[in-house]
Amino acid sequence: MDEFKISEKDYNIDSEITPRSITRATPTTIKTAVIERRFDDLGLAPWLLDSCKELGFEAPTSVQYNTIPAILSGDDVLASAKTGQGKTAAFALPILSALSENRYGVFAVVLTPTRELAVQIAEQIRTLGNAINVDCRVVIAGVAIEDALQSLTVDNDDKRPHIIVATPGRLSDNLNDTMKQALQHCRFLVLDEADHLLAYGFEFEVKRIIEHLPPKIQTLLFSSTLTTMNKKLELFQLKNPYIFEDNQ
């Protein structure tokens, strides 16, 4: 697979962010994915490999194959791929794998621009994490969220949900000191459809949510394109992020 070095000028990324490299999928790598790529090679927990087989996942897609090892290694990730390439599983699988090794409180916060997408993501996370009884709660407008919010404010990590999937506005509206305490050990922040989140005026809400998360949180940004995100990356304290772009 080809790797191309990029500079801050190429991507107009804030000077504090030092991207390592950008990996672009080629027609050849996509064509040979089913033959040469296996979930077994990505470092996922054995129980997740069994879940993938049970769910009929034959081979990782390009975005999954390239980003899952980076996420498991603790890297921040910027990744783009078209709809239908399995971006949700690309971040859900490594998060669930890490969660199964160290289960506690709120482990990940996933932000997405629409209620419908939040529900879809939560359903997929629950399906993938069924073997470990993952507790994934949705915080969105238009539904009764009292139970989800109450579960976040209990004074016991064991009773808090493992993963929160939310729209930025609804989560931001309910942040307080108690919520900040509940999120103090959160390990992952995910922005799905990050280009839409950052282009459609959610910067204030996203920034407020980040202020309630630990400073060393691992940040994963997934979108359809990287180009529209570049001017908004200063919101995140990304350190040497792994960048993957699949425009095939």
Automatic annotation (TrEMBL):
Keyword Hydrolase: yes
Every DEAD-box RNA helicase Q domain range: 37-65
UniProt domain Helicase ATP-binding: residue ranges: 68-244
Sequence motif Q motif, location on chain: 37-65
GO molecular function, one term: RNA helicase activity
Pfam families to which the protein is assigned, alphabetical: DEAD
GO CC field: cytosol
SUPFAM superfamilies: P-loop containing nucleoside triphosphate hydrolases (SSF52540)
Statement: the UniProt record of this protein carries the keyword Transferase: no
Record keywords, A-Z: ATP-binding, Helicase, Hydrolase, Nucleotide-binding
Protein name as annotated: DEAD/DEAH box helicase
Species this chain originates from: Heterostelium pallidum (strain ATCC 26659 / Pp 5 / PN500)
